[in-house]
Amino acid sequence: MGACLPRYLWRGVVEAALKSDSEFRAELERAMRELGIGIRELSRMSGVSESLLYKVLSGSRSDIRVSTLRKIIRAIRRAEGVSEEPFLAIIAARPTLNSIDVSQIKVGGRTIRLKEYAAATIEEILLAAIRAEEDGAAGIVCAPVVSNIVARVARIPVVSCPVELCKHPIMRAVEIAARKLFPG
């Protein structure tokens, strides 16, 4: 069967926060347990006081500010290795990715990081698009033949470059995406 897409813990915490205080507490505790972090570590990572975290987790404080929730979510995202800095995702077959010799590009004085997602089948391409979005990609660059399908799945911009117009189409598409997403 196909590859399994990992479910990020931070997403579960956000979804639980929208449901109820008790589900938020349970999901936050689960995320902390799975990440191997305690209250002291979460406090250090998030900038939220240990005292407030104890109150939230014990149920004695349920009315936290949205800004506090954001701090907690950002800390969990970092603990999971999800990037906070914007990047462009490149979804392509391994030989195409191997031809890319840069990990970032400069557009309008700004450096944009590139992150590669290898995919050989339609299923892998769709999973890579979902994963790229979950990882925090600002946009996706992929082959023209799959760009319409990827655009239906992704909630972020998708760009491709027709092969006949470009000597090195993947990097041309990266430049186009970067200029659109990060105007100078």
Key structural traits:
2 domains, 54% helix, five-stranded mixed β-sheet, Rossmann fold
User: Given the structure, what is the number of helices?
Assistant: 9
The major pleated sheet works out as: 5 strands, mixed
As for the CATH topology of the largest domain, it is Rossmann fold
Low-confidence stretches are 1-5
Helix content: 40-55%
Global structural class: alpha/beta
Helix and strand run: HHHHHEHEEHEHEH
Radius of gyration: 19 Å
Secondary-structure arrangement, i.e. CATH architecture of the largest domain: 3-Layer(aba) Sandwich
What is the CATH C level class of the largest domain, in words? Answer: Alpha Beta
What is the arithmetic mean of pLDDT?
84
Q: What count of structural domains?
A: 2
Shape: elongated
Could you give the distance between the termini? 44 Å
Total beta strands: 5
Portion of residues in beta strands equals 5-15%
In spatial order, strands of the major sheet run: 2-3-1-4-5
Could you characterize the architecture of this molecule?
The chain is α/β, with parallel strands linked by helices and 184 residues long. The protein folds into two domains: 9-79, 434 Repressor (Amino-terminal Domain), CATH 1.10.260; 87-181, Rossmann fold. Helix content is 54%, strand content 13%. The chain has helices at residues 9-19, 21-35, 39-46, 50-58, 66-79, 94-98, 122-135, 144-153, 169-181, and strands at 87-92, 104-107, 110-118, 139-141, 158-159. It has a five-stranded mixed β-sheet. Helix 8 (144-153) links the parallel strand 4 and strand 5. The longest helix has 15 residues, at 21-35. It is elongated.
